[in-house]
């Protein structure tokens, strides 16, 4: 009876109804806020990076096959050499390798002058060797990205041979012009003043066809006429050939050069006499809008292979220097990723931490969740001085730490993981045509041989690269600077740090777009926080450009915590501090020039 009584009396009167009304409204408001306003609360699940396509989850390791590992004693690296070194590549933790060209080529530009797109050059091995490499990489879950050079072929390509002879099928495969009479001379001059990237006129008179042909690079690299539908078909066929072999993507060479102005009787303004100036606009020979249509067609072609060979989405990455953000975004929209060369082109050894931050912010502007454009960073390649030489050996580890902890896909050039430096070659020893286009005094500013010296595997003869005579001699510092010694060393090394970082960056905190730069009072210090929803938070800090004096920074406010645990340190700091995996006060992080630390923030 008493219970009934209670029930009847439960919530009688206006006060109680008003109370219930208020509670219900409060509940509705809370649900609405949680659902629509605060994304963080709404997403109850942790950020999960495993759904990202493979190329967003990995580091790309560039191999210049000629200089990686020779197995047949001819002094030139080969495909079997790459296969032989797969355990090493796997030990780095990288999930993809990009191979510079290994196709049939007279090697005037060391493979970037292709005479047959679907053949392996005998110097690098055979198609069987390539297939074996593919099988072995597959076992190790390493993807293979191959180079593709659509702008030009070798002058020894059958297409060019036939084109010179005016064969009906091939006559329009290249860019030919009878030229123009300028100074009342008998012989025609080239149709315009365009310069080759390697220096000198971009036009070469051909005695057989009695016309000029255009070459953005070497005379032995005639530019294809990519407006020709037949040429487009040939390029598609070549891409299809390699897709069918199971490659995971393409690095597209010199893409911005692929089309030229339709009217070739226009001069470019402001050009020099001989030397090509990369900083000029070149609006008649680069960045023509036709590029995007072709890119889209290659994306479509590659997407047709999504479900084949267990690869998934193919990675199409384009090499074009000096792009504006607007053009960069057009590459993205067309289904490719344009290489971001800011860490090569903008970073120099006068740039301190704050200056690097500016470069990074500028690089990342417009990328991320709003655009869905995935960032990428490149620290070195076969065309530019090595990072350890460009920025100094003492900056190497901090630079690798930065490369591997930034958002997006990093590309690492072979040998940079151990801090290989540029080798020096006399003019007489020089092999690179870009260097040889200049004289004994000028070649040094142009030759790319120094960054192409053979991989330094160990301290045995020729650094373990070859039993024969290497095509470029090994850098003599291999005796102390080599992969084996860094791998086996009991005290921390560049290579060991590299491996730790590659491993660390696989976790969700790093494998996303999120980065918050930290305002530091010390101009030397570059610092940022990497985080993912529901994931541990990391402070990454480096002293860039500072001297040997320790600089102390307080990260406790920006990290919103006073303690952290050191995850990775640059080797010298690791040796000196002994703090690895230990707790650390975020209010007092000490870094000398070239030091860097990745710290997990503890709650
Ligand atoms: C860019 C390549 O990376 C470089 O090595 C080559 O010389 C030019 N393109 C021409 O193919
Ligand atoms: Mg060989």
UniProtKB/TrEMBL annotation:
The chain crosses the membrane at residues 16-37. Signal peptide: none annotated. Keywords: Glycoprotein, Membrane, Transmembrane, Transmembrane helix. The keyword Oxidoreductase does not apply. GO terms for biological process: carbohydrate metabolic process. The keyword Membrane applies. InterPro entries: GH, GH13_cat_dom, O16G_dom_2. SUPFAM superfamilies: (Trans)glycosidases. Residues 62-448 form the Glycosyl hydrolase family 13 catalytic domain. Coiled coil: none annotated. Pfam families: Alpha-amylase (PF00128). SMART domains: Aamy (SM00642). This is Glycosyl hydrolase family 13 catalytic domain-containing protein. It comes from Pinctada imbricata (Atlantic pearl-oyster).
